[in-house]
Amino acid sequence: MIHKQKIAILGAGESGAGTAILAKKEGFEVFVSDFGKIKEKYKSVLEELKVEWEEGGHTESKLLDADIIMKSPGIPDSATIVKKLVSQGIPVVSEIEFASKYTDAKIIAITGSNGKTTTTKWIHHILKNARISAGIAGNVGDSFAKQVAEEKFDWYVLELSSFQLDGIVDFKPHIAVLTNITPDHLDRYNYNLDEYVASKFRITKNQTEEDFFIYDADDNIITEWLNTHSVRAQKLPFSLQKKLEKGAYLEDNNIKINTLNTQFIMPTSSIALEGKHNTKNAMAASTVANLLKIRKETIRASMEGFQAVEHRLEKVLKINNVLYINDSKATNINATYYALDSMESETIWIVGGVDKGNNYSELLPLVNEKVKAIICLGVDNSRIFEAFGNCVDIMVETQFMEEAIKIAYKLGEKGNVVLLSPACASFDLFENYEDRGRQFKDAVRNL
């Protein structure tokens, strides 16, 4: 009798449930284990699959009996059970690694500290408009593994975090995009920036000379790494600051893209989303489109017609001539820098949450120039007070979104902007950044 390969899945969220679907289809004996409580919608998936599962702890003997482990990205490598499995020589991989073995589709993979969701959705939007068969997965949409099991796409556009990239072995995207690198999630990387950078560059690990690597040439961390490491893929940089022979650059308010002996030119005025960071996201997305030889008219129409990602500089409402903007997805300093940089009116800034070791000094020039009041929304706001106490006349703190919006409403004057751009994670007061953004929008609509 042929031994059925055994897979143990750590974590029963979107990636865990999706991996269970694909593993069952591919003939694996599946065991799912979650240290916490499994959401009802994923429980019903596991019940329907008739796979064995547990919650509220791990049965070590069953995990050690597996031939392969799929670890959900939220579980750190430092977790005791993960270290034990690795020490026993059991391969521990990510959903992305596992699922990629069961599809022939070509992959466009996007990573970066900021801008990856917008760039991923923008690329998928262009592909859809060009009638190219493409799925969207990773940190967005349905699980990659689930789609590999149930769909038949020619291409996948994957948004990948450093945590997902940490679990790859053979995964190879045909086109890799690195939007930028700024210090983020350093608590998962021993507070060592070099480890985090190396994690991001794993996206290029298995690429060959036939593949492509698109990256921000204005990003010092990226360019320094490339000066001392080799990437086999063909490099296509993008830049707002310098003219490039290959890749994308800005000249006379036009984006110019040169790839594979074809050129594409588009005025920045026709880009749907505002801000320098979105010009860069547009450069990355249209470089991908140009590589795929998508018609120039389709690329232009897709650049003009793209809708902003929810919780990323999302204009909610204008009340008494005060505009309320939801940028809850800004969970680090760099994302908030871009948000403040794109403000053209006096701003009431809502900031705070779980600080990841932020260096707020980078924001000082923008706060001095643009911010008239700061509302701290977090359990511990001491570092924000310390950083900006001398910059603005009005600083208040609260632990309730509704109260934050009422304060902002009182402070707001004609032409002002109220900007939620926290520069911090959300877990002290909210379920996640989406919950924080939705509460912001609800509170604004209830004014």
UniProtKB/TrEMBL annotation:
It is an enzyme of class 6 (ligase). Pathway: Cell wall biogenesis; peptidoglycan biosynthesis. Its main location: cytoplasm. GO terms for molecular function: ATP binding; UDP-N-acetylmuramoylalanine-D-glutamate ligase activity. It catalyses: UDP-N-acetyl-alpha-D-muramoyl-L-alanine + D-glutamate + ATP = UDP-N-acetyl-alpha-D-muramoyl-L-alanyl-D-glutamate + ADP + phosphate + H(+). ATP binds at G112, S113, N114, G115, K116, T117, T118. GO terms for cellular component: cytoplasm. One of its GO terms (biological process) is peptidoglycan biosynthetic process. Residues 110-289 form the Mur ligase central domain. This is UDP-N-acetylmuramoylalanine--D-glutamate ligase. It comes from Gillisia limnaea (strain DSM 15749 / LMG 21470 / R-8282). The gene is murD.
